[in-house]
Amino acid sequence: MIQIFQKSLPYADKTAIISEGQAYSFAKLHQASANFAQLLLDESADLAEGRVAFMVNPGFDYVRVQWGIWQAGGIVVPLCLSYPLPSLRYTIENSGASVIVVSPEFEGMLSDLANELNCRFIVLGKNETAKHSKKLPEVNDARGAMILYTSGTTNLPKGVVSTHANLNAQISSLIEAWKWTSNDATVCVLPLHHVHGVVNVVSCALWAGASCTFMPNFSEKEIFGLIENQKINVFMAVPTIYFKLITYWEGLAKDQQQELTNALAKLRLMISGSAALPVSVMERWKTISTHLLLERYGMTEIGMALSNPYDGPRVAGHVGYPLPGVSARLSEEGEIQIKGKTVFKEYWNKPESTAESFTEDGWFKTGDIAAIDEIGGYRILGRNSVDIIKSGGYKISALEIEEVLRQYPGIADCSVVGLPNDEWGELVAAAIVIKAEVDQKALNAWMREQMPAYKTPRKYTVLPELPRNAMGKVTKKDVVNLIQ
């Protein structure tokens, strides 16, 4: 039996999911997902790792479809709800999906493609009657469970294949480290085609017997409402969301601010991830909420690998220590390398890329550059190909410069990149979003007082906002195109 399904069996009568104002028990989820598995199987006994792509709104339907695919022996391929048709086509074709499942509002977008690719097409609530009733297959932990596609910042996205054993290790590691229990309640405000939302929030909650409220559309007011009414005690988000919550809080009356601060203080755990957390945001959030955010580090291929401690000191700008069951080391170049059961099986149909991603002794090469501090914690310096700028013979961390820039009055946000340059190799440049007029000469002089001259940007470009992906990460390739 699928472990997440088995782990949640003792909580049959407890609320598992709150979606669109309706509460669903674990028993209801178990039955609905088993029914969907029967529908998927049709006349077969086992999907045998067949890929099922699904474009389903966050909520009860999403989870019953995901669990149903697993129980039928298939591999889940979640689709991004905001992707245009060409991107969806790429994911469906590349994964070799033979079945496409959609919420009714996406039927028009994907029905013709499903017909063209000869995929079975299931519209939720429309053609959901199973023709047969049969015993569900036994699913071995070594089987493929999920294919998530990387963001593809430098080339076409790669499908990351995780087995059930990988997911079990990722979830159980976080259950232990972050002390999840069946008394917890959380809310999912994150996209469900990324590991952050799928594993850290939804899967951890349900594995532990906790409840998960779904919020398909982000709303600062609704999030604070859940917190104020003590409907949740665990909250996970990306830095962009914390920035928006801070802005919303600052616009409230003093008495409302104090009420929210009192409510925030009662939460058990607040976590930030998927992008670097600016120290300024972390410090401001602590003032507002009394919580020093727990920052962690992970990626699609490895789940979560490093985390600041649940109990014990959390260091701003650092991502902490290896999680239970995870081994970590730095290469001579400072690259983080990871080993353990949490590490993915392979890139889908890309044996060469898979082989290139591992060292000869079996460590996964993350491509992220870090340093270890005096107490053994990891501090991310940047992504080897994106955040490490090679200028004039120096290796410069873009993240370090961004932290300093955010401290300057008038700058709301920023992104530092390297621009191709014949003389320097790369020229340090900054895109800035301003909240007040900024004199660039004064800014440049101030920056040179804060750090060595070779690290200071040679070019500043004001943008109305920074380009971001679905997880809130700044897409630096787009920044380069905007400021060149």
TrEMBL record:
Signal sequence residues: none
UniProt domain AMP-dependent synthetase/ligase: residue ranges: 11-348
Stored InterPro entries: AMP-bd_C (IPR025110), AMP-bd_C_sf (IPR045851), AMP-dep_synth/lig_dom (IPR000873), ANL_N_sf (IPR042099)
Ranges where the AMP-binding enzyme C-terminal domain occurs: 400-473
Highest taxon in the source lineage: Bacteria
SUPFAM superfamilies assigned: Acetyl-CoA synthetase-like (SSF56801)
Family per similarity comment: Belongs to the ATP-dependent AMP-binding enzyme family.
Descriptive protein name: Acyl-CoA synthetase
Source organism per UniProt: Aquirufa regiilacus
